[in-house]
Sequence to fold (178 residues):
Amino acid sequence: MIKESYKETVPLPEGVQVEIEGTKVTLKSGANENVRNFKVKGIEIKKAGEGLEIEARPAKRKMNAKLKTVVSHLHNMAKGLNQEFEYKMTIVYSHFPMSVNIKGNIVEINNFAGEKKMRQAKILPGVKVVIKGKDVTVTGHAKEAVGQTAANLETATRVRGRDRRVFQDGIFIVSKGK
Fold:
């Protein structure tokens, strides 16, 4: 028998409210809220009992891969409502002391490798960045936003045009967790 579609269900924790408007899915729990727009052709998301039902048509290998990706994103959205995602980073410099400050939704990096120009990294909405000495902690309820903010910090301090083995300055991800 040939399948017409693939189906999967995502169980949601207690107290989570779901709103589905077309391709936009909103999960709320207390003061926390995660919103994501799933613009994937052939994927349909419905509310079913105490969870979400995701259906992919036609039953092809690529559609199954897209279905699994959407399911993973929904799992991360549900997990993020109850517990925060956390990335720990460290500031490394060898000769020139780097100063890192937060101004609104931007992290300012001064004196990176002795440069006069200030470097900047954007903090995405819903993400909190805390700097204590050489340790930087990035936390938030949306896994993608936390990861992207950490990546923004790493890429802002990327060394270009020099030998990476000698110039090892930067802000680096040390650990990821919940």
About this structure: The first strand starts at residue 6 and ends at 11. The mean pLDDT is 91.
